[in-house]
Amino acid sequence: MTGLRIENPGPRSTVQDGGRTGFQHQGLSPGGAADLRAWRWANHLLGNPPDAACVEITLGGFAAEAEGDLLLAVTGASGAVHVNGKPVPEWGVFSMLPGDRLQLGAPGHGLLTYLAVAGGWRTRSFLGSRSTVAREGLRELRALRCGDLLPAQPIRHEAASDTIRRRQVPEQWRSQPAQPDKPLKLIPGPDRSQFKPTDLARLVLSDYRVSGLSDRMGYRLEGPALCSPGGVTSRAVNCGTVQIPGDGKPMVMLNDRQTIGGYTVPGTVPRLDCSRLAQCRPGDVIRFTWADVAECQAERMVFEEQMNSMSWDQEGRLVRRRG
Amino acid sequence: MTVTAPLPRIIPVAEDAVLLEFSQQIDPQLAPVISAWAAAIRQQLGQRLTDLVPSYGSITVYYDLTSADFRLIISLLKTIPEKLSRQPAQRPGRLVELPVWYHPSVGPDLESLAHARGLSPDQVADIHSATTYQVYALGFSPGFGFMGLVDPAVATPRLERPRTLVPAGSVGIANRQTAVYPSLSPGGWQLIGRCPTPLFDEDNLALLTVGDRVRFIAVNRHRFVELGGDETPFEDTESPR
Known about the structure:
The complex is a heterodimer of chains A (323) and B (241).
Chain A: E1 3-8, E2 12-16, H1 36-46, E3 54-58, E4 62-67, E5 70-76, E6 81-83, E7 86-87, E8 92-96, E9 101-104, E10 112-117, E11 149-151, E12 184-188, H2 197-205, E13 208-210, E14 218-222, E15 231-236, E16 241-244, E17 251-253, E18 260-268, H3 271-278, E19 285-286, E20 288-290, H4 293-309, E21 310-312, E22 318-320
Chain B: E1 9-14, E2 17-21, H1 30-45, E3 49-55, E4 58-63, H2 70-77, H3 80-85, E5 95-100, H4 110-116, H5 121-130, E6 132-138, E7 145-148, E8 163-166, E9 170-174, E10 177-180, E11 185-187, E12 190-194, E13 200-201, E14 205-206, E15 213-218, H6 221-226
Parallel strand pairs in B: 5-15
Antiparallel strand pairs in B: 1-2, 2-4, 3-4, 6-7, 6-15, 7-10, 8-11, 9-10, 9-12, 13-14
GO molecular function (chain B): ATP binding; hydrolase activity
Protein name (chain B): Sensor histidine kinase inhibitor, KipI family
Pfam families (chain B): CT_C_D (PF02682)
């Protein structure tokens, strides 16, 4: 079978696509690629369906061997991707022959690297998604281990043309980890009126540091605590929901969150800003700024429109599709 | 009976989600209202809907933002009361019976809870199984149904230190809520017994649905095993962290 044999998954690698939607009412967490932008570009580079599954690699440390001819793309956290010791272009396309060895060192900055294969990885699909939410313990949907084979479609010869390997996502389209001078947007939440005005001001005027207790479920932040107004009756938790638990330190819930929760919610971080947060490492500093839902929706629509309207020409250049 | 009142507060909570909040309290009267709204929203939004999460006093509607913006979704949601007023009232949810073996070997908190309330373990079982519960929400893990309301005589807070491993089937109480853990997971609810019925499997998905009613039936060890229950005694192997 054609595929990629894992020699070392690094600290944490999982298969992720757009997530398992439509089953949150059964308590199934959607999961899905935490950096939407990097995941979408990895598929775009190869002309994959936009929802194809990629491997999400956390903090590098990944090694694997090709079984068969493979055409791959890598996006996300920067740097240190090698095939047989030779560097491959960042946010670009490369091929592997049987026995070739892929290695990812620790990225220079950012946390998550996305590895796509032509046609998408053919791991188990359950309820329309190959996304892994490891704690749910669904059959075959677990974090990758040494010796696992990631199955892929045999490569089509025209797909492996030289020009496709020239494709590279221009710098301006790449995702960046959140930084204090580019704050995360915050859509006002349902419990905003329960917080003291001074606490709401504190939330957007303070620096917060990403805690070591952060993962795909949610990011805990260290910094000025808010006075928690107590809990609310449990209701749905979104990707980006900011929860204020008893200790007053904000938590931003991400893809592998539980579907409902009872902490008070001052606001929600929109999806593209969750992507920037998910690229932060423990210790990185972030800030928040209020934004309205119309603005966040428009920004997301522009992103969707751009992803749909751009394509690669014969020379491997990114162009806006006509018509 | 009409299911239109009360009207919810409608808030766009994310770029692709709108919250409908009917009440901030736990209210058994609301359950049929929430179920009726959920069904009507599914019908009204059709393909635009990506997820719908009912819970206690609210419904969160997730939608495909490439097919509708939040203003359109809110406008569509505002037509629901009129639709509901033309529909016959919903029947009460399905009644699901769940057998439980109430015993200290699989319910490690049964004796301490009984002792604290001046009851015998059997009396705790009798009180817990005397109520017909409403399923208010599913969450925490696949198939985990939050049910209520537990009789104040046996209602008890969560453990101060949650356990890292609670076996599948464990029946727990947290304040006035009760639930069965569908799979091995961490958990802080006080455990009083074990249920042999699978609450989630990959072929049939979740056994319970929001709006269902549940009655627990006390069974003995023999019957519990006959029904496929795992009688392995609960072992608190944890050392304090």
